[in-house]
């Protein structure tokens, strides 16, 4: 959605950076935290939009709110209200246009680091639903 704001129910507005203002260093900072990376991984698993309360995070509600705000202000997620729920979704298109392949690379690295990826090189699904291809050199140690 163009502009900094998305119209929300009840007149509530949430600030989002326009796609052209998303910066790689801000995105990388946001994705460096394990809790925020967990949020992004859950959203990437095929969930279009998820309510903040649907995430089972190992932090307090106020800390969870902080993590969602960092992701939103970095341009990684878009949030909007649906009734009383704050919904979140990945900004795959915006991130892909500004930093092609970055989100998929981070998700794949997170899989490998946690031992989720099989030796065959499976990865998170990309924006088109297809899994990212494995590196020709094989899995990273």
Summarize the helices and strands and which ones pair or pack:
Elements: E1 5-7, E2 13-15, H1 24-32, H2 34-44, E3 50-51, H3 61-74, E4 77-82, E5 85-90, H4 92-98, H5 102-114
Question: Can you put this structure into words, describing what you see?
Answer:
By secondary structure, this protein is α+β, with helices and mostly antiparallel strands. Strand 4 (77-82) and strand 5 form a beta hairpin. Helix 1 (24-32) packs antiparallel against helix 3. It contains five helices and five strands.
Gyration radius (Cα, Å) is: 15 Å
Strand order of the largest sheet: 3-5-4
Strand elements, count:
5
Q: Helix content range of the residues, please?
A: 25-40%
The fraction of residues assigned to DSSP E strands is: 5-15%
Output the number of helix runs: 5
Largest sheet: 3 strands, antiparallel
Q: Overall mean pLDDT score?
A: 79
Note the gap between the termini. 39 Å
| Shape type | globular
